Amino acid sequence: MSAVILDGKTCAARLKTELAQRVTVLKERGVVCGLATVLVGDDPASKWYVSGKHSDCAEVGIASIKRELPGDVSQNELEAVLQELNENPDCTGYIVQLPLPKHLDISCVLELIDPAKDADGLHPTNLGRLLLNVNEAINTPLPCTPRAVIELGERCGIDFNGKHVVVVGRGATVGRPIAPLLTRREINATVTLTHTGTKNLDELLLQADVIVAASGVARMVGPASVKPGAVVFDVGVSRRVDPVTGKSNVVGDVDPAVAEVAGAMSPNPGGVGPMTRALLLKNVVEMAERAAKSGLRKDDSYDC
Q: Measuring CA to CA, which residue among 16, 60, 6 is closest to residue 34?
């Protein structure tokens, strides 16, 4: 068996085309979407990620707003920048690029983001609303990577309804928020959350119809732990130095040999990653649409 590849690059390109059309509709109504990034310091990886986000914005017509701060910025100075973005009408949504320097209080920083401008969908208020909302439509920003897993699967014909999904990883970015998304009635999956401390991990993985590997431990999920025909999303990222070239390469949580057992599998890189970036844009567009709709008079219509 050779797994069907869940191509995140192709799906993300299609999503961006759809978003560009929605952005055009908003512009025709006088609404301009703006994504801001807050970058502290000069970490090369963080600078690369932020640059990629602004390139994505240019593709779909979203305005870019950049706030670049020195690595020794004070807590008060950083908080003042967040307050400025909260009040800035040109900023539809924004992110604070992580990691931050150790002298800064990350929890305090993230909680200062206006929940209505939380482009990552990870503000405690938005996560709380997601947790409490099983049945109704979600009208708040959703966490990008968990949403990317689901949308990539659905765009590739994966039906999560009634499936047993085993998630590996308990981080705040993927592992913890993906369960309330998958168990909403509209998706209707059953979720088992595991992590590096789970004693019978292989036993649980073999029961899974769908595996979401998001532990950040290289090659943690091997072919012997995957039920034939299962769907496997390789989400976690770590780096290994190639002993021959000396270059640092991205390594996923899933052994490539899993492709010989799985029915479908997302590559890493090239799977969930591109979709995560596209879902960040989707959050911004949806926030602009919601803001525009709420600002209309009662006798106006809005069908974007």
A: 60
CATH code of 142-275, in short, is 3.40.50.720
Task: Tell me the domain boundaries of the chain.
Answer: 22-115, 142-275
DSSP 138: P
The answer to whether 53 is a known catalytic residue is yes
The whole-angstrom separation of Cα 194 and Cα 176 is 10
User: Are 35 and 64 within 8 A, CB to CB?
Assistant: yes
pLDDT in tens, 203-245: 999 999 999 999 999 999 999 999 999 999 999 998 888 888 8
One fold for both 22-115 and 142-275?
A: yes
pLDDT (0 to 100) of residue 13: 98
Catalytic position from the list 97, 117, 253, 282: 97
Fold for the domain defined by 22-115: Rossmann fold (3.40.50)
Catalytic residue of the set 118, 120, 234, 255:
120
Active site includes 120? yes
Residue 12 has pLDDT above 50, yes or no: yes
Q: Which among 16, 53, 117, 163 is annotated as catalytic?
A: 53
